[in-house]
Amino acid sequence: MKTLKRILLFIVGVGLLIACSKSDQFWGDEPLGKSIKGVKTEPVMVTTPFKVDYLGNYTSMEVVAGCGDYPNMRIVVDGTGTGTYVGKSTVHFDFCCNVETGVYGFGVPTEYIVAANGDILYISCAGQVKTGRLPDHPDYVNSYWKDPFVILGGTGRFKGSTGGGMTDDYNSDLDPYSHHHWTGTITMVKGN
Length: 192
Prior knowledge:
This protein is mostly beta strands and 192 residues long. It contains one helix and 14 strands; from the N terminus they run H-E-E-E-E-E-E-E-E-E-E-E-E-E-E. An eight-stranded antiparallel beta barrel has the order 3-4-5-6-7-11-12-14. A two-stranded antiparallel sheet has the order 1-2.
């Protein structure tokens, strides 16, 4: 009987030692919850609202071979502003536009946002600039474009990002700049 008590006491003691240890190891060298070899966990993607506002400066308007003959022109716009997940940032648009019809975004456009931390968010936008203004625009608007934009991924925190929304952009009689106001959603890795 004494031997049986000693064996049971030994088993209880070992059980308490194992139960009270701070290790998160369960099986071999794998952490608890990852004990199945070869199973990779996928990152969790989340979709959240995305909004940016930029003031663009037309830095170049020229006829180039990649856009075709006049009235097609290459337009380059560089701007500054702020936005969701990009903070105080810069935007770069380089695209072809037919200056008579207002159709833009053809050729091989290069469009991206450089976030405050240096990460790049690639975007794409195409549509048509229209003369005039919409009722919700200020009186000084002389042309506008409301077109879809698409998020094409990026670097750093934007790697693998997707999403999109609508632009609400215009040119003004008060200044030589383009005014960009975009709203939509972005899907990116949770925690980025």
